[in-house]
Write a structure and sequence with these properties.
- With 294 residues, this protein is an alpha/beta fold.
- The chain has a seven-stranded mixed beta sheet, with helices on both faces.
- The protein is globular.
- The C terminus is likely disordered.
């Protein structure tokens, strides 16, 4: 699988980050590379159009996330005509020796409980289709305090998809204190390059000290990341809040622990199952406007 941004841990993701920044080629990484260090995996969330839970258990078994209830969340597709949305925490547990871990399986809503027949018919063939991973590690990062990894893939969670070529974009996010440390570790040339990529005028910075350059980049990163963070938070809220409120509370807290700063020019376009109006989308934007900034 090809990979993009990254660099919180070691190995495949670091190589992917270097290759991406150099615009040369996309190296191959495995799903195991994305997990990085299983013993450090504190919390995980996966979304998929169908999931092989025995395959997924092999990726997370032995991790702190898999060893505790609600450590691993899976948002999955299902037959929404016969099964109501909700949370299943009884099917895949350590009591099942073929699984051996705790999976909290979320079946997201496709329509409201009060939806009319016409609205239900319009989503008759609707599916839960996004393929996204969020992996929180308690080690790694600039200061060794952990990081949050976002992976967006073309592959579903199954053995067949794991055997064929897929693409995956990966980006690591750090706590605010670590984000500042990461900027301080950049050379003057690296600062110049990213400031230019983010559209910051360089002329006013000439002759100023390195701290001023670093502060300018931190400010530019923060301004550019607002929409990205709100979009990611809105996506998880739409999937989790009504079907599994306790899991939404957990992941809302996880997202708030990190500066969700993507590479320059990166935007999220995420698909939530269901039928949505423009008016509803505007309301979501208003509700999330200050969600990650305060």
């Amino acid at each position: 699988a090809g990979s993009g941004c990254g660099g919180g841990g070691h190995g495949g993701a670091d190589a992917a980050a270097a290759a991406s920044s150099a615009h040369r080629y996309m190296p191959e990484v495995s799903r195991g590379d994305l997990i990085w260090r299983r013993s450090a995996l504190r919390t995980a969330l996966f979304t998929s159009y169908g999931t092989d839970y025995f395959f997924l258990s092999e990726l997370v078994r032995g991790s702190p996330a898999g060893a505790r209830p609600r450590g691993v969340t899976v948002v999955d597709n299902y037959d929404h005509h016969r099964t109501p949305p909700g949370l299943d925490e009884g099917t895949y547990t350590p009591a099942n020796p073929s699984v051996g871990v705790h999976f909290s399986v979320v079946l997201p809503p496709f329509f409201g409980s009060d939806a009319c027949a016409a609205d239900r018919t319009r989503v008759h063939h609707g599916t839960m289709h996004p393929k996204l991973w969020l992996l929180e590690f308690e080690q790694g990062g600039p200061s060794g305090n952990g990081f949050l990894r976002l992976a967006i893939s073309s592959a579903n969670l199954g053995r067949y998809d794991a055997k064929i070529n897929n693409q995956v974009w990966v980006c690591d996010f750090f706590a605010p204190s670590d984000a500042a440390a990461a900027v301080r570790a950049l050379s003057k040339q690296q600062l110049r390059q990213e400031l230019d990529e983010r559209g910051v005028p360089l002329a006013p910075l000439k002759g100023l000290d390195l701290v001023t350059w670093q502060s300018s980049l931190l400010q530019a990163r923060g301004s550019a990341s607002a929409d990205f963070g709100c979009d990611l938070r809105r996506f998880l809220r739409a999937l989790l809040q009504s079907a599994a409120p306790p899991l939404w509370a957990i992941w809302d807290g996880v997202l708030r622990r990190y500066d969700l700063i993507p590479p320059a020019g990166t935007h999220l376009i995420l698909s939530v199952p269901g039928r949505h109006s423009v008016t509803r989308s505007v309301r979501y934007d208003a509700a999330d406007a200050g969600g990650l900034g305060g």
